[in-house]
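pasting HTH gntR-type domain-containing protein for the record, 241 residues
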Amino acid sequence: MTSKKTPLYMKIANKLLADIQSGSLKGGEKLPTEYELADTFEVSRLTIRKALDYLIARNILIKQKNHGTFVVEQSKIQSGASGLAGFSEIIRNLGMTPSTKLIEMTEVFLPSEEIRIRLELEDKESVIFIKRVRYANETPLVIENLHIRKKYLGDITQVDFETESLFETIEQHILIGYSQQEISAELVSDSTAALLDIEKGSPILLVDTTTSSIQGEPLLIDLSYYRPDKYTFKNILKRNH
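structre below
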């Protein structure tokens, strides 16, 4: 069985993307010309053009007529700006492409006392634990650690948690009403830094969320790590009178 080789233009696109993610190429910076890139990578201009077109289609680069190709300045993603929405909804609404890598999924028959209390579990009720990394335009942004009441997921063997929306899956069984969040900051662990492609020991946002149904029944707990260089949270605070 022969392995499928990565096309040459994709290797170049991935190298340019890595330079952007590492900061070697910064937002707003002009790229070398197609001729210069072709010389650098020792390929044809057609190959360079395909690589650039691939990144332009994903809103990573932008071509300005008579001026050249530039790195798009990515503003921070804002959670809460348009109400309660899932990660994929937020990313798609920004014109970006969401993707997910499933790290772990297991059924927990004996949840911790904290999980049992927060989710108001019934006797012998199990939860599904899911750990996954969320991406926007192939850049890792969030690590989710989810505890979800199994009865609101249905047959999990029929759900692809890398491609299907968690909120939409739950809402096949019960409508989601609201979430409560606690946000704090800490220094990232080595394992989390590796998954999010950030420096070890750098600051990270820890967001502890409980999501409930319209009736107020707890559905899931989400302990997530967000990159503060890519994400902000918007809250509306009302004064009590």
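The mean pLDDT is 89.
Strands lie at 61-64, 68-71, 77-79, 98-108, 127-136, 139-149, 176-187, 203-213, 218-226, 231-233.
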